[in-house]
């Protein structure tokens, strides 16, 4: 019975061809007389697709001939092995009109079916579930309608599914979330899906680019699993969706944002929020019926403010521009206050100069446009007082880390203050961008608008030193070997020393912690967070008298971060309660780095000393009493690092070495 299948299919195809060509008797006769039975089963299945195409304006299927023995030489077809079995069909942007025949299910070795940017209509055939080796299914930008077949959830090899920009409807099939090998793209955007987002979608891996934009989905976004890590762009264009990460309150209450541990705030934990999202939400408060009226009032006020700002800027631009340029030269040694850096491209969306909006690529190697950045899939990887950090996956190129800064501008009541704030922000960001060192997290671009400030960095996938030492979603299942720990702290020391020495202004980091030391693919250290303290805490206060000119001079926001975070603060900078009180200093950076060294050697948290002491005091007392700290205490390299760490954490700041000396001492070890 199975052996007769190709002959039956061939006969059916010949009849279909004849019926489709009744207007041309010669063509019908040729179709019936052609030896289609010579084709193998895969070729016959593809002929079914050709006959299902009613319009092929570009002749994309002209080479699909039934006289061939197999389809391996046909345009858009690839075969695997020597048996003439089809492994891929790729016919993108060919303007093909027609439908998808169920005979495609006979392509049992098919791994890729890519037919985007055509005019295919009808429903996705249910029989497609038979393609068990399919890894890529791309039917985007067609005119397909109807529900998504639930059988797609049984395609155990599927890694990439793109059904965007069609007319599909019904509810989101929960079975898709259970695809075991889904790892690339799940794009269901710009269709007509209705209903809520199934909680099962929280089980989709964080690495998958999920896109549900432009549908008619409704209800609260489930705060479970990887859905907590999604950025707002994954849900845009669904007016009836509410809850985090959208800034839309759900009816009957406020959707509480999931809290993400501050220890993972350094762009480091792709899955940090997943467990947090499973916690029960707090009791909701009833919403006020006056919210829509208040929203209208706010919008009117904002529009009026923009108009006033524009008028004031026209009057004051010349004088204020000269004033700010002189201020920037004094602050950064000349030229730092320019809108763009030398060799950068200043890209403003329509009327950017007047609207106070600017997007600047710090170097020519960064080719992502603002629109691409804002539309790309984004995943929350960290949250702190400084703002939220996303891993952004563009359509092309590598992922980037985007930090959305907190504390937006509070208006422009001082007659041009918004303009001054923008110039101050650009000067600070330009100074951060000039920091170029292999062991410093590199700023690639920045974006400023009155209500939005973004810093774009290279994405570093291996988390932070903190997660590597103490555990976390990105941590390795095995402890870091000593040689790797030593290499990490050596690189971090070189990076911090560079920040201290790279400018005559003697920059200060101000917030050195193990969470600020990020690790790339090869576990090389990159110091992150440079300049954030000032940008967040004081960049908008440029008119305030006596503001510090040291980037990073604002104290690290450690209040509420736990005893471990306070342990990084040097004694001379602490208030009576232990929280930072004085402005950060380079000597304070050295102390904090010494605590990081002790973490790396002992594997303990900064507050995990014994007898109620923090780590630094416990280690210092142990050395004074000549007590062994661990099994590795006797190793020469470990002892050398201990002594460097104790020098960094001297109570008297004048006794601490400079970071350059610390880096040189560590480089001599091993």
From TrEMBL:
InterPro entries: Kinase-like_dom_sf, Leu-rich_rpt, LRR_dom_sf, LRR_N_plant-typ, PRK1-6/SRF4-like, Prot_kinase_dom, Ser-Thr/Tyr_kinase_cat_dom. Residues 255-285, 323-354 are annotated as: Disordered. It is a single-pass membrane protein. SUPFAM superfamilies: L domain-like, Protein kinase-like (PK-like). Residues 1-20 form the signal peptide. It is found in: Membrane. The chain crosses the membrane at residues 290-308. GO terms for cellular component: membrane. It holds the Pfam family LRR_1. Keywords: Leucine-rich repeat, Membrane, Phosphoprotein, Repeat, Signal, Transmembrane, Transmembrane helix. Residues 344-669 form the Protein kinase domain. PROSITE patterns: PROTEIN_KINASE_DOM. This is Protein kinase domain-containing protein. It comes from Urochloa decumbens.
